[in-house]
Amino acid sequence: MSDAGAQADSAARSDSTTPPPVPAWAECNESDECVAVPESCCGQCGVATPDDMIGVNREFQSAYRVDVACAGGGEDCPLCAAIQDPNLVAVCSQNRCEARDLRDTEVSTGCVEDNDCILASPTCCEGCGILGEDSLIAIERGAQAQLFEELGCSETLACDDCIGEPDPSLRAVCIVDADSPNRCMITRSSTSAPTPSPSE
Fold it and tell me: Which helix (H) or strand (E) is 164 found in, with range?
């Protein structure tokens, strides 16, 4: 092979392994810049689901929906509203926002009894005021550091000087399932059945 041919072959291999450029709506430096939104135009009543989500820079959230998800005029979306599942988050990975389902991680699995589970905010700053079901997930006790790692929390992130407290009617319980790993879930104190996530 000639030198020119070798250079062309090397360039072709380089091009095939070069990742595509990150679109402006997905660029990020820190995870708190990212948000999980529906990849489709309508989502499920306007919110993301495990099968329909993408991470975008929150400053470009509207632009993504207009220019990408609903490009070409969009759709006649249902007139309904839903609460976003707090297990669906977006993190900044290699300067690109990526959507993740925290249920696919180990932060909520492996419990044996209810005391192994706690309520936690799926954010780097842990929220402020009274936190309801739309702002909490159930994780294994001792998994807070792993949760922060999954969220891509920066050590230099400046959080508001406030404290988030779970709604006193909520608690975390361990759900034992013979067909899948035991999992921490949220339930209300007045009921015995676990509260399913909004998108489940």
Answer: strand 164-166
Q: Would you say 112 and 184 are in contact if contact means Cβ atoms under 8 Å apart?
A: no
Give the H or E element holding residue 54: strand 54-57
In whole angstroms, give the CA distance from residue 78 to residue 46: 9
Q: How far is CA 77 from the centre of its chain?
A: 23
- Quick check: 172 and 121 in contact, CB under 8 A? no
pLDDT digits (tens, 9 = 90+) for 36-72: 999 999 999 999 999 999 999 999 999 999 999 998 7
Question: CB neighbours of 87 closer than 8 A, spacing ≥ 6?
Answer: 101, 102, 103, 122, 137, 197
* Vertex 176: Cα angle to 147 and 193 (nearest 5): 90
User: How far is the C-alpha of 143 from the C-alpha of 124, rounded, in Å?
Assistant: 14
- Dist. CA 135–CA 125, nearest whole Å: 12
Burial 18-28 (b: 16+ CB within 10 A, else e): eeeeeeebbbb
Residue position matching structure tokens 């402020």? 128
Confidence of residue 192 (pLDDT cuts 50, 70, 90): very low
Q: Please, are residues 8 and 14 in contact by the beta-carbon 8 Å criterion? A: no
Element (H, E) at 19: none
Report pLDDT digits (tens) over 89-99.
999 999 999 99
Evaluate whether 36 touches 84 at the Cβ level (below 8 Å): yes
